[in-house]
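Students often ask why inverse folding is considered easier than folding. One informal answer: many sequences map to the same fold, so there is more than one right answer. In these notes we will look at a single instance of the problem. The structure comes first.
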């Protein structure tokens, strides 16, 4: 059984992951409305990945005989000034999420809850990727700032991003 402190923190994390999903879905819809179908696709995939993250935590609580408690999801912004701003906010947000995951790992370590520590390793690695891909997108968007043809090409590239299910879910089925 997990400590109550860790259960509460994981339930809060499920909410944070679902909020992240909602944020990226909103960015996807804003990009779509502005004609950037590739950017919209990139954020739509991000939306799917965040739902996977929430699902992994829900599966974990269920498997440890703990109760999943879904909380209200707060509103997100609905429009951004530019594609670059979307990616800048993405990186800022992912850094916050990295802090939340590190906090979960700290609680698990304090509890000497080795199973939870082990589960969190996937998320610690995932956050490195999340921050790196947001940084890559900032560099790409900066490179084409004020260059409409470059933006058109970048948008076409981002249309190729494909969702793949997170590995802990693939092995859990
Ligand atoms: Fe669930 Fe983007 O980290």
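Output (designed amino acids):
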């Amino acid at each position: 059984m997990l400590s109550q402190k860790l259960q509460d923190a994981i339930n809060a994390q499920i909410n944070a992951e679902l909020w992240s999903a909602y944020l990226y879905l909103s960015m996807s819809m804003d990009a779509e409305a502005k004609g950037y179908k590739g950017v919209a696709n990139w954020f739509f995939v991000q939306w799917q990945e965040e739902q996977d993250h929430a699902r992994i935590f829900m599966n974990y609580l269920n498997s440890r005989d703990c109760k999943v408690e879904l909380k209200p999801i707060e509103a997100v912004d609905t429009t951004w000034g530019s594609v670059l701003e979307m990616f800048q906010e993405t990186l800022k947000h992912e850094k916050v999420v990295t802090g939340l995951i590190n906090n979960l790992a700290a609680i698990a370590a304090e509890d000497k809850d080795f199973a939870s520590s082990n589960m969190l390793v996937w998320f610690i690695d995932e956050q490195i990727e999340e921050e790196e891909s947001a940084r890559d997108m900032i560099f790409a968007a900066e490179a084409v700032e004020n260059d409409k043809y470059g933006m058109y090409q970048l948008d076409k590239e981002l249309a190729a991003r494909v969702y793949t299910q997170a590995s802990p879910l693939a092995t859990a089925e």
